[in-house]
Amino acid sequence: MGIRELEDAIAQEERAVQAALTAIAAAQQRAKGHAVTFTESWPAEVVAQLRANAAQALAMSAAYPPYARGDWNSDAWRQWVPDSAHPPRFLVAGQIADQRTAGGEFRVPWPIPFIGLARTVIIPTNGDAAAGLEVLHSLVIRIAAMFPHQARYTFVDPARQGRSFPMFRSLPTGMVRMSTTDIARDFEEIRRDIDRINAAYLDKQAPSLEKVAADVRVNERFEFIFVAEYPDGFDRRAIEGLRQLARNGPPAGKYLFIQWNKDLAGPHDVKLDEFEGLYVLPLTAGPRAHYEATTSPAPEASLERAIFEKLASVKPPERKLGWSDVVAPRGDRVWCESAAVRIETPVGGSGASQLLRLWFGADDEGRTCAHGMLGAMPGAGKSNLYHVLVLGLAARYSPKELRMYLIDGKFGVEFQDHRNLPHADVVSLNTPPELSRSVLAELLREMEWRNSCFARAGVVDLAGYRKAGEPSGVMPRILLLVDEYQELFEGDREGVASRHLLQLAQQGRSAGIHMMLGAQRFGVVGLMHQAAVMGNIHLRVAMQMPHDAVQALTEFGRDGRRLIGACDLPGKTVINDRSGDDTGNHFGKVAYLDGDQRRKWIAQLQAKAQAELPEDQRGRGIVCDGQAQPRFVDNPFVARALRRPARLSVREREHLAKQPAHAGGLDVGDWFAGERPFALWLGQEFNVNGYARVVVRRRAGEGVLVVGGAYQARYGMFASMLTSVALDAGPESTELFILDRSIPETPWHGTLEETTAVLRRLGYAVSYERGGDAGDALVERAAALTTRRRAQSEEELLHEPSVFLFIADADRVRALARRDGEYGLEDSELGIRLALALNEGPAVGVHVVLGFSGFMPMTRTLDAKRLDQFRHRVALQAGEDDSFGLVRSRKAAQLQAHGQTPIVALYCDMIGGGESRFKPYAVDDKAGWGDQWALVAGRIELWGRRHGNG
Fold this sequence. Notes:
CATH topology of the largest domain: Rossmann fold
Number of strands: 34
Radius of gyration: 40 Å
Shape: elongated
Structural class: alpha/beta
Strand content: 15-25%
CATH class of the largest domain: Alpha Beta
Oligomer: single chain
Number of helices: 27
Number of domains: 3
CATH superfamily of the largest domain: P-loop containing nucleotide triphosphate hydrolases
CATH architecture of the largest domain: 3-Layer(aba) Sandwich
Strand order of the largest sheet: 13-12-11-21-20-19-14-18-17-15-16-22
């Protein structure tokens, strides 16, 4: 066939096609005409039925949740109460109207595929991009309303730099993943998250996220990726990333919504409509079988604001992994683990069935995990993780295997319950920096002692020592847990804390001492040698953190930072036990341990320890509260005394006093039984082992002076010193004179009188007076006893009881006030008798303890030269001149530099040169002195009944 014949054939075919199109158009027109004619000829009852259907549809629509309606009816949204919906298979995009009814009253929601249908929604726009963005905006709000706190959003808007999604500021913090300028890299982050979800949750029983059991799935969020103005800003890498998300995202709960601007040109060989699983959502769908669909724009700004305000009030749903199901050992497995090589406990769950674990020591492959660090923002679940870690370890390892130092470096009281944990050597609450640093120093001393034990045994570490048979007994591992560890460095101009941390970090593991440091960020201001310290932090734990903090992390690799970014609910965590290397990341949820369950377990472990372990195999139980005054009965020396079946003899007291502090002794080398010494407890020092005390002996110049205006502390110290006398010696060895000049109707007024009543009931010889001639007579009797004893031999004096004269508020004893004389103020007659007792009394066993309301009131009773008789001086807050006059330094003027609480005091040994800053025992409602005294009195009474030694 020639060219002309071919052209004629083609023309003939084109005429045939045109004729067919004309015939089709005519047929359509005739059909429409028939439809109109038919509609107009409907019987009235058919029209009525259609209208009834429309009314019924409207009534049904009103009963829907407002996000399931096709409009933004303000009344419906005002009555709406947010709740958590099950993952729906359809999402409402607008309304469908039946055009056969007048005005199209018959309207129903326009559903589009959603969860579980594996579709990518495309909104094509051509000249109407703004309307397409409105639809995206509308869908974001509907999804947020359907999934309060259960949805995460990624907004991709390279063309307008995020301006297409202004609503993101109203979404809850942590639920928005904003894209960067590198879109392909952003998509790669999402793809890695898909890999994580696939590995953690999906299997044959649950091939996609919505099919995972609801109580497991609730710890994950569905993620919705909204793309505006595609393909503007997209290169081939980004488009390929988008294609992968469309193909692999839905099973992992990642769904794409793309506004495709067809006015913009993209790479010529890449077509969006070639993507898998597309659902095209046109802005309007023309009449189809009498129905017309119209997409819904975003609501009015005021309604949108009201919706987000309601959403903000909703508490996020969460799955709380049960402590009993995940962490707690079975009853027959409590305290069955050995700490010879490591300590380890589960702390939560990962994915559908795996456990999250924390460990210190060495694993079966010999890999080391020496120390740990936790970073988490407030509200992320950090405190709960501490409780789970502490109790998980305490339930697996006995106090013979594990001891703990628990330090709260800020203002919390998270470790309050752990004071009764039998593993606790130190529990410090509201810890001031100087006390925190003293804990580090204490552990360094412990480390040095352990290393000396290893050297004697010919081994290099705890594991070797345990394997060699531990010649000095079982040596437990130690866990130091410091919350808000940045407080260690406050006011540390010399860098002491940094040096201590570095030494513990580098050398602690071999000695079996492990640290877990916590803060809101990993790196903190003030930490020197940070690289060297972090080099020994093999365990790194992160929880929810601000986005900028996550991106700035250097302690984790790229994959670790991505996982931390997914920690969007309290309790979610990333645990890395390989120094931050991405091969060691474990993502999951920490088990929840409520307060009642925590206290129950602590009580069980405490009872088990008391039944099975001797006292020297339990923790020391030292409790420090940086903001509260200490309790007398919490003093470990007092607590141990109260647990003894009998009071120690004079020689036993001497032996105990000379023992070093780490062995439970007083560390007083010059304690000699022949001098009949007494340890009078004053309060708690700002260090781990330190408890302020006055040790009075039968030596010259051993007077005790307490000066300051804090009455509750001054009377608390007087009461504790009286109680100390009763703990140290029985009624046959002591005699007490108490002159109480406290001001009537004050909270401390009855303290010494109540103490006296108990002492008398216990058989002690106590003379108590409130002043007047009878009070003056007590001073006279002390002076007379001093004169009589001066004539006795040393052998006779050994059998004489120790006498204590306590005068509280001595400046209110009128007969002691100094008088005007020829050469100025002179001692009164009673003052001369008091001076005799002060000068000569201590050497013969008559001790004087005086309290004054201030330095100047004291000078009206005592001449300055009399101060030389007071070796022991206790100062409360004073002015600078008074401080120099009393303790020869300005330190008493600086005691309350950090506020009025806690009350701080200064003890100075004016002969020995020692001094200590401490929190005195105080008489206040919190102290509960009467209850404490009852405990002491009960034990003293028991000693007397059992052994006749009172």
